[in-house]
Specification:
The complex is a heterodimer of chains A (611) and B (390).
Chain A: H1 9-32, H2 38-63, H3 71-88, H4 93-119, H5 124-143, H6 146-149, H7 164-182, H8 185-195, H9 197-202, H10 207-233, H11 243-256, H12 261-277, H13 284-299, H14 312-324, E1 357-366, E2 369-379, E3 384-388, H15 395-402, E4 410-415, E5 418-419, H16 425-431, E6 433-435, H17 448-455, H18 464-468, H19 472-491, H20 507-520, E7 525-529, H21 537-554, E8 557-561, H22 565-571, E9 574-579, E10 582-587, H23 589-594, H24 596-603
Parallel strand pairs in A: 3-8, 3-9, 6-7, 7-8
Antiparallel strand pairs in A: 1-2, 1-4, 4-5, 9-10
Chain B: H1 2-22, E1 34-41, H2 48-67, E2 72-79, H3 84-96, E3 101-104, H4 108-121, E4 125-127, E5 137-138, E6 143-144, E7 148-150, H5 155-169, E8 174-180, H6 184-200, E9 203-210, H7 218-227, E10 231-234, H8 238-251, E11 256-259, H9 266-269, E12 280-283, H10 292-305, H11 311-331, H12 340-351, E13 354-357, E14 360-363, E15 375-380, E16 383-389
Helix pairs in contact in B: 2-11, 3-4, 5-6, 7-8, 11-12
The chains are: A alpha/beta (611), B alpha/beta (390).
Amino acid sequence: MKKKLTIPMPIRYLINFILVVLLLIVGHLAISTGVLNRAQTSIVLQAGIFMILAVSLNVVTGYLGQLPLGHAGFMAVGAYAGAIFWRSNLLSGHASLIVGLIVAGIAAGLVGILIGVPALRLRGDYLAIITLGFGEIIRVFIINLPGITGGTPGLRGIPRYSNFFVVYIGVILTCTVIHMVMKSRHGRAILAIKGNEIAAESCGVSTTYYKVLAFAISASFAGVAGALFAGNQGILTPGSFDFMASINILVIVVLGGMGSMLGSLISAAVLTSLPLILQQFNEYRMIIYSLMLIMIMIFKPSGLMGTYDFSMSRLLEKAYNRLFRHTATEESPPKLTFSIAEKAVVPKQTLGNKPVLSCQQLGIDFGGLTAVDDFNFTVYPNKIAGLIGPNGAGKTTTFNLLTKVYQPSRGTIYLNGQDTKHLNTVKANKLGIARTFQNIRLFKELTVLENVMIGIHNEIDYNLAESILRLPHYWRDEQTAKERSLNLLSLFKMESMANYKAGSLPYGYQRKLEIIRALATNPSVLLLDEPAAGMNPSETEELMAIIQQIKKEFQIAIVLIEHDMQLVMNICEDITVLNYGRIIAQGTPEEVKNDPKVIEAYLGKGEGAHA
Amino acid sequence: MKQFRKFAMVASLLVLSVFLVACQDDASTSDEDVIRIGVLAPLTGSAAQFGNAVYNGIMLYVEEFNARGGLQIEIISFDEEGDPALGLTGYHSLYDQGVAAIIGSVTSGVTMAIVPEAYLDHMPMISASATHLGVTYNAETGQVFTNMFRTAYIDPYQGYKLANFAFQEMGAATAGVLFNTGDDYSTGLTQAFVEQAEVLGLEIVAIEGFSTGAVEFQSQLTNIAAANPDVLFLPVYYEDVALIAGQAASAGVQSTLIGGDGWNSVLTIIADPSLLEGAFYASGYSNDYPSERVQAFLAAYRAKYNADPNMFSAQAYDAAMVLFAALVEVDDLGFERASVEHRLAIIDALAATDIEAVTGSITFDEFNNPQKQLLILEIQEGVSTFWGPF
């Protein structure tokens, strides 16, 4: 089988760049020679502006998975900031245009942060209502600051900077920047939050930071679009930024497919030109428009493009492979570029013999209910500890305490000798604790490789600017992350699945992937919450081998919650038994097995382990 | 199921495309003796009510005009939905289709977005209903948009006239104002009213505001009732008038209510017309005005639409009349139609307008605003009765 063609990144960028320039030339010629008449040109400009709005809103709705309803508010801030700057005549010509757009973006971005910090503590419909409220507040502010914004009549005489060239560059820059951010560790973090917020935090992704970041990016491009809007219309009235304006942008994104940039672009173009195209139908126009919306939602509920995104290079590759290499039919897994033996798979932990995790008198109350109390627990490196107990004994609660998902009501937790008192989940993870979940929490929409790379989020540290500009630091780190992720995957024989969607994996592999993702964060303690749940005996067998392997290769401490007694008794060196939130026994498997209290409370009288 | 879905999708797409194609080519062919005129109006959307009234008024005059023979008018309309951005597209679309002039748009917001562009093209425009001062004149730069005319009087003019009316005709010594702070029309009338009241010595004892969409006016009305002015000026649209009138009585407001042309059709929606008993409002037009022209227009409108016209229809009828008169005037000068020279000639002819129209005799001042009388209507026994011109 011949090798499939893959176009290397620099050439991909070059192809895209050439396409962009070609389209610019074609568009410019079409307009200047009158192939596009004035009405069509004006539609092109508006479509461009709405493309920026839709693509920017998509960052929060499609990628971050939130539902803000106040996008027009950010657009308004940018529009007025840009317009006021331009009208002030501080600069002239191109400098004024460019600085005005930057001012618009920054102003809207700042307002985005201001609103995002409190608003993003909420989610779902609460966030929708809050942002709706903020959007209206912005509009009311504008109405009531007549000295600055012209009040209700608004501003007029705004320089009409928004020609085809300017709007086009705006669209391209927006798409490029957002694309570059999304295809980086920052973008992966944002997607991880959408996938599963708790899991993202347990991988060391600061959800607050990335939510606000996504909000700020979204808001600042909306601001740029607002300024272009002002420069297109020449006048600004607050009425243009009402609730319906936000809804219109949202409709574009939903129709195009939340999470698809291409979808947003197409949908913005179509929806903006419909009123012009359908003009001749008069009264039927609204019916046709509504029918189209309904039809798309019925036949394609995920939007026109779903989450599909377009890549010219991928298309070329496909076409090329179709035409010249008939043999390549199946997606082949990425090849490892090095042998595992050569490179140290895992940085060997030098944990010594000091306890990596110890807690004293740990306890938590939920209102009047004491879920866990007087929990004393110590784990050493290179050991496997078990945490067992009947349902409702407080095992998962204990894990949530250790990973700081819950803040304990009493007691202390020391991680690698450090007090975790004021730490949150993200910081606890950075200190060396990682976990899996009882109900699998993978980032289902992401690939297996991406899931693992999110685990490596904090190990690579290129910043936002470096990812947007694709500086060497970005390439280096991404390469490292990818290699290390593939290494980890190959260690568990999953490298061939690297490009599959995590959600499409069989159950056993999902469990395995969750463990790998946790390992990727480089923990010194790994918490496994019922890893064998739902596994058949042979899978359990394999799991046991894997846990042993982790202990051997990584020499870290492993804490295990498990109901499968055979598994627990076989691999744990030390077992803690919880009942009603309290430790009733602690010791080696033999000791625990024979402890009358355990037998009574948990294992049943007169019986041994129910193997 | 999947098969069906696919089938249904293809079928509906087919139907849609057939529909699209079928309707594609119904644009009329151009004729030598036909001048294309654009109509820009919100025929759908929140301002559709005004848009359709304007459209009907224009089409009535077009029918009459074309029936007379000679120069023929072809109307190309564009529905701008009350959206300035779509209005701009609409303007360009009409321009592309070679119109010699445009009647429109209906609301001030959309019209103001289009005017600067149309000014550069020397496109003659006449609006039947855009009342904002800034439609024909940019106060900041002092620029007059010489291509833009209108048959509606401007907001400040109404406020000014109504202050005069309250002081001179109603003998008011004190006045209160309740206005919509988020609405151009309302703030425009208020400002002019208050300024003129000061000049006249009509004391403003209470001035209260509310924002668009408010339905509860108790606190404002209580303040006004406490000040107890002779007249309460309500420069708001009729939906708000109906709401405010209902609450004013219970708040103890004793003042006589007066308002501007936003009150038109208030009686069609108010539950209890007696709440407005004795109130006055201004209008550019009244069906009761016993002038020959008004009655002829009324009869023709009723015959065509089987409904009564309102101020917007009448002013639109007048706008068409004014524009077509200018077209006739420049028609034998031999310009190529819709050429820049033709348009400039139309603009000149419009500026020199002196016409007896339905809503009064129309001439334009240096800002292209009409100089005409206000008609005052008084609500008596649940109906608007004609008080007289003022």
